[in-house]
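Dear colleagues,

As part of the handover before I leave the project, I'm documenting each prediction I ran so the next person doesn't have to rerun anything. This entry is a single chain, and its sequence is reproduced below.
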Amino acid sequence: MDFSDLLDQVHVIAKDAGAAIMSIYSREFSVEEKEDKSPLTEADKAAHEVIMAGLEALPEGIPVLSEEDAEGFAGADANGRYWLVDPLDGTKEFIKRNGEFTVNIALIENGRPVLGVVVAPALEVSYLAARDVGAFKIEWGEGKANERRAIRVAGQPVEGATWRVVGSRSHPSPDLAAWLEKLGSHDMVPMGSSLKLCLVAEGAADVYPRLGPTCLWDTGAAHAVVEQAGGRVETLEAQPLDYATPSEKLNPYFIVWG
């Protein structure tokens, strides 16, 4: 499988989904509540439809697990592959209209994210990564270069330096304060959606501790970006975050290290 070409194709699909989201973002929209009390908007549904049509049109025929149709997922293919999709990650940020929401599309192979695309349509920025291809950032708004720029994590700060910690804007965790106290001197940067992982991937933050609930589709795409940029996404037991059992939708707590 040519990951370079596939990465370009998936980026187009994600940007098309982002355009569908922005057409709704620019006007009044309805908000529903799902069974788990999380919000659902017209934009989530519109982006889901765009992504499903795009991925199903690809020649590989890989099954799709989307947040908006988890029940329709029959499992990975014979090669252990499936698409992992969050059509609109950061719905709360979308409702607040702060721009910090993303389209997430990941390719999972034998439990590992081997390709990931994260598009932030309101910010007009994309993060792309694939195995043996690398990790990249593209700023594609008007007047921007619209070119791939290779990204790399910053690495662990030198001893005594202040850690740049990125954290959730909408999901504060009571466990986080104790973890940060052990970390030592730090500056906290709040951010929504999978952009938190992407900030670590591009070297703009050193660590992202997530001591609260997330689902597989929240992390898969940006996890691929972090790994291809030289970082790690690990459980509290220092094991790689795993996607081999998609029937278990919730991730364990994890740390993203630059």
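The mean pLDDT is 94. The first strand starts at residue 31 and ends at 33.

All the best with the project,
I.
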